[in-house]
Amino acid sequence: MAEHTSSSITIEAPAADVMSVIADFARYPDWTGEVKEAEVLATDAQGRAEQVRLVMDAGAIKDDQTLEYTWAGGNEVSWTLVKSQMLRSLDGSYLLKPLGPSSTEVTYQLTVDVKIPMLGMIKRKAEKVIIDRALAGLKKRVEATS
After folding, report:
1. Which residues of 82-107 are buried (b: 16+ CB within 10 A; e: fewer)?
2. Is the CB of residue 9 less than 8 Å from the CB of residue 135?
3. CATH number, domain at 78?
4. Other residues' Cβ atoms within 10 Å of the Cβ of residue 109
5. In the list 13, 29, 58, 126, which could disulfide-bond 146, CB 3.0-4.6 Å?
6. Which letter does DSSP use for residue 53 in this model?
7. Does the pLDDT of residue 1 top 70, yes or no?
8. Distance in angstroms (rounded) separating the CA atoms of residues 145 and 126
9. Residue 65 vs residues 8, 17, 38, 45, 129: alpha-carbon distances, Å
10. What DSSP element (H or E) covers 40?
11. Do the beta carbons of residue 63 and residue 51 sit within 8 Å?
C-alpha cells in the first residue's frame, strides 16, 4: 500500500467559500504554483467537475494529466488519476472542517506514484512541497476574495 502525505491549514473563511475556490478549476493557474492550465472535461448533474485536464509544472514533475473528481457533500472532494504522461497513480483529497461560522480547517491528502524510479523519501518530500504550496495558495486566494 502506498504511503500518503497530508497537511492541514486554517483558513479564515466559511467552508462554502473555501470549497467554491477549490471547485473553480479555471482559476487554478491564478493561485496554484504548479497548475499552468486547467480544463473541465466533464461535469456532474450539479455542475461540479467530474473530469479535469491539468497541465502541471511542479519542478521535478512536469505533466499533462486528467483527474476524476468525486464530491462528498459540501465539505469533501477527492480525485484519482485517469491518465498521465509521468505518473502511475495520483490520489488526493481536500477535507473541510468548519471551525465556526468564518473559519475552516482544510486537510489536503496526496499520494503520488511516478513512472520513473524515485526514492520514497524524495517522493514524499515532493508531495509535501506540493501540498504546502497548494494550501498556502488556497488560503491566500480564499482570504483575499472573502
Report:
1. eebebbeebbbbbbbeeeeeeebebb
2. yes
3. 3.30.530.20
4. 17
5. 13
6. E
7. no
8. 29
9. 25, 26, 10, 23, 19
10. strand 35-43
11. no
Number of domains in the chain: 1
Grid cell listed for 8: 492541514
Which pLDDT does position 65 carry in this prediction? 94
46-50, 136-140, 142-146: the lowest-pLDDT one: 142-146
The three three-digit cell numbers of residue 40, written as one number: 473541465
HEC letters along 59-121: CCEEEEEEEEEEEECCCEEEEEEEECCCEEEEEEEEEEEEEECCEEEEEEEEEEEECCCCCHH
CA 16 to chain centre: 16
Paired strand residues for 29: none
List all residues 6 or more positions away from 107 whose beta carbon is below 8 Å from its beta carbon. 6, 7, 8, 93, 94, 95, 97
- The grid coordinates listed for 132 are 504546502
**Whether the Cβ atoms of residue 28 and residue 35 lie closer than 8 Å to each other:** yes
d(CA 112, CA 80): 10
Question: Structure pTM?
Answer: 0.87
